[in-house]
Fold this sequence. Notes:
Number of domains: 2
Strand order of the largest sheet: 1-2
Strand content: 5-15%
Amino acid sequence: MWIDSILQDIRYGARQLRRSPAFAIVAIVSLSLGIGANTAIFTLLNALLLRPLPVRNPGELVLFGNGLPQGSTLSIPDGRTNLFSRSFVRDLRGKQSSFLGVAAVDSTQFETKASIAGSSYETNRVNLISGSYFSVLGVPAFLGRTIGAF
């Protein structure tokens, strides 16, 4: 019985849209733009927030410090606001037994000029990383090899 009611409503709506084609065009364009905008927003949010990181075991990654661009050790008990030193990372890697690996990345990004295979120089954004960075993340080299541990 409710199916008949729905079919009657659909037929009535189609008759009304046929009577006023300008309204029908505006309604169809509005629906199309709304559906397209929602699809674009969901695609962006899915890529940025919902999809897991493309690394091995992304739920097991731990960030020491607060990840601010200038770097800090506010989570360390003495609260000094210094960058983690190379010796600190080396000692952490050697003395820890809870983690599968330890990698370091300089949270300050800078620009430099680089040329690949004799092409013209281009400006690239660079982050300094430790040699264990790719192995800890479980990301293999696409071509060639990754850098060695320090």
